[in-house]
Design brief:
Elements: E1 2-6, H1 13-24, E2 28-30, H2 31-40, H3 44-54, H4 61-72, E3 81-84, H5 90-102, E4 109-114, H6 117-125, E5 127-129, E6 136-138, H7 165-179, H8 181-188, E7 192-196, H9 201-214
Parallel strand pairs: 1-3, 1-4, 2-3, 4-7
Antiparallel strand pairs: 5-6
Helix pairs in contact: 1-9, 2-3, 4-5
Bound molecules: adenosine monophosphate (AMP).
Length: 218
Amino acid sequence: MRLVFLGAPGVGKGTQAELIASRFRHPRISTGDILREAIRSKTAMGLQAKAYMDRGQLVPDEVVVGIVKDKLAEPACADGFLLDGFPRTVHQAERLTDLLNSRKERLDRVVNVSVPRDEVVRRLSGRRSCPTCQAVYHVDFSPPQRAGRCDRCGNELMQRSDDQRETVEARLSVYDAQTAPLVQYYRERGLLSDLDGSGRVEEVQERLVKLLAEHGVA
Ligand code: AMP
């Protein structure tokens, strides 16, 4: 199973990709998570990426292509993987094709998750996460048992700095300008499937599993 999850920030692609990853036991590669981890560990890559991420802009292509190249080389990815948040530009998509060609592999499906724009803003502004275990909550839709505290480790939940309103707007404009063209790019190549991301997490997951089965992917 080799999948790409495409969609604007806040459509729930990370949540859906994570569920598919554990269901089918394939690694989920989230370039955003890897970059945030690099920032926490204060690596050179993290320091370089932070300035872009804080402004809601994309990190340079060569940085994220390097991350994905290294990840795909890990033995865990030999039988499949789920890419979440990569590619985000046509250039990244071309580099991914080159990488896969060199491994004699190809993508099975690109899942384009979408929800209405006002819903996206509501989801992002209420999103909270645990800085320790990275568990994700939403103040209205999936609140923790104790307000502001992680159910798993009890730590105080945080809002991602790029989930603040002005940055959310910048990220959505970046998505429209640089990432949305990928929908057409993959549709033309016969790889794209649209997934309605509205409704409860379980409902969306059910639709997704059905869609993958219809395409013989799962
Ligand atoms: P995400 O967690 O996927 O929403 O990503 C958070 C931020 O990380 C984005 O707003 C970008 O600044 C950066 N980022 C993640 N993936 C990529 C990518 N494929 N290309 C460029 N920047 C990325």
